[in-house]
Amino acid sequence: MSGHFDSALLGGHCRLELADGSRIELPAGRWLRDPGAADELLLGRCWGPTLDIGCGPGRLTAALARRGVPSLGIDVSGTAVRLTRRRGGVALRRDVFDRVPGAGRWRHALLADGNIGIGGDPVVLLRRVFELLGPGGRALVELDPPGAAVRRERVRVDGSPWFPWAWLGADALAGVAAAAALAVSWTAAHGGRHFAELRRAG
To answer: Which tens digit of pLDDT belongs to each residue from 43-56?
Structure first.
């Protein structure tokens, strides 16, 4: 998650405020714990160099490192980078749309914990992610439950400036993938969380 989520990274509550005044509670506690069974669905598919985009406090980046999988977490939050390093992961303060080390050579990219919402446009984000992946590279994405469709909003956290965000329902993934010239190669669900793996189409 981005720097707007620093209070959650430090153990506080985290709510997204939407323009209509409604609020969405985010699972900050899960970000701080060790990976659970649902996370293992993602981790088990990462066997080559992996870029964890919006790594937050680094539970996935550090877990991969412990398994001997080369991994790099990137996050625009300095707090996230520090926490990831404290857990034993390698992390840099970096925006996915800026220069990223290893561009064009990563085997896997993770967009967990709602990070498909970064930038407010999943198609644009996925196109960027596949610029960072090497030939045959795969993106592993966490999705909202079916029925959520594609939703774009301006949101903020605890009075922070407004920023664009998006949600992508599992049943809307195929259309978004096609628009980004991608194909869905795997899907899974566990404990109310939904995941998919994407590859280049063709």
So the answer is: 999 999 999 999 99
